[in-house]
């Protein structure tokens, strides 16, 4: 089911492992073309938004098929241990990068389960290069995995991750989000750009 053997497999039957009858759908024709940015879905998003002094500012580029690459540089704001990135923030980066794959399917989805393996410390000042792909879809369930490498796209593996996303109607966001933020989001340039591809209106 995996389209890229370069991402190490965790093996086993975790909930993030796609079942045998999972499929790999066609990429949505409205999705950003390979090599094009997948823009932030929300300027206030801590991981990919640009309206955060301490945010991760993850930048994501669409890849071939149902894949993408992303990168961000660990700043002093992202420390856990002195001089090292906080593991939770690294997990957040993977949540967003893996979640961005759903824009290639043009269906809104939320994280149901996210697993992260930390394999190497990530120092402040280093750039983490993420490669992520959809490895199967069954019904509303989108199975994904990713690898993060230090310094360059073929640098040493620092993290691997896998996630299960569940496709949801847009009302998941409009009904559950704090009303004043949802109201502001309707005017947010990033939200408006994102939902244009979803065949739904915010
Ligand atoms: C103005 C609007 C703006 C909008 C902008 C868009 C922004 C986008 C932003 C993106 C943000 C970035 C990302 C973020 O940060 S997303 C933020 C973090 N995630 C969440 O907040 C999600 C919270 N959870 C829920 O809302 C519900 O539980 C969901 C919707 C996920 C499912 O509840 P729902 O009632 O709908 O469905 P179901 O319970 O029948 O489950 C369906 C199937 O899924 C399976 N399953 C479920 N959970 C798990 C699990 N943990 N492990 C394994 N399996 C799981 C389940 O077994 C079942 O399988 P099957 O029995 O069918 O085989």
From TrEMBL:
Source organism per UniProt: Longivirga aurantiaca
Top-rank lineage group of the source organism? Bacteria
Q: Name one GO molecular function term.
A: hydrolase activity
What's the protein's topology in the membrane? Answer: Peripheral membrane protein
Q: Which UniProt keywords apply?
A: Apoptosis, Cell membrane, Cell projection, Cytoplasm, Fatty acid metabolism, Hydrolase, Lipid metabolism, Membrane, Transit peptide
Matching Gene3D superfamilies:
Hotdog Thioesterase
The UniProt entry's coiled-coil ranges are none
What is stated as this protein's family in its record?
Belongs to the THEM4/THEM5 thioesterase family.
Region annotation Disordered: where it falls in the sequence: 1-36
Assign the protein's first listed, main location to one coarse class: membrane
EC number of the protein: 3.1.2.2
In terms of InterPro entries, this protein maps to: HotDog_dom_sf, THEM4/THEM5_acyl-CoA_thioest, Thioestr_dom
- EC class, as a word, reads hydrolase
> Which compartments does it reside in?
Cell projection, Ruffle membrane; Cytoplasm; Membrane
Protein name (record)? Acyl-coenzyme A thioesterase THEM4
Upper taxonomic classification of the species? Bacteria, Bacillati, Actinomycetota, Actinomycetes, Sporichthyales
């Amino acid at each position: 089911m995996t389209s890229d053997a370069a991402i190490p497999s965790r093996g086993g039957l975790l909930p993030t492992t796609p079942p045998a009858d999972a499929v790999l759908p066609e990429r949505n024709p409205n999705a950003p073309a390979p090599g094009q940015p997948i823009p932030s879905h929300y300027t206030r998003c801590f991981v990919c938004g640009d309206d955060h002094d301490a945010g991760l500012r993850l930048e994501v580029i669409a890849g071939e098929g149902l894949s993408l690459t992303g990168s961000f540089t660990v700043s002093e704001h992202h420390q856990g241990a002195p001089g090292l990135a906080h593991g939770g923030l690294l997990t957040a980066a993977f949540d967003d990068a893996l979640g961005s794959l759903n824009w290639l399917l043009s269906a809104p989805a939320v994280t149901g389960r996210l697993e992260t393996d930390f394999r190497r410390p990530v120092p402040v000042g280093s750039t983490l290069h993420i490669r992520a792909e959809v490895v199967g879809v069954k019904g509303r369930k989108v199975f994904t995995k990713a690898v993060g490498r230090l310094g360059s796209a073929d640098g040493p593996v620092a993290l691997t991750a896998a996630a299960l996303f569940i496709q949801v109607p847009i009302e998941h966001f409009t009904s559950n989000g704090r009303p004043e933020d949802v109201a502001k989001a309707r005017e947010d340039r990033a939200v408006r750009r994102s939902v244009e591809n979803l065949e739904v209106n915010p």
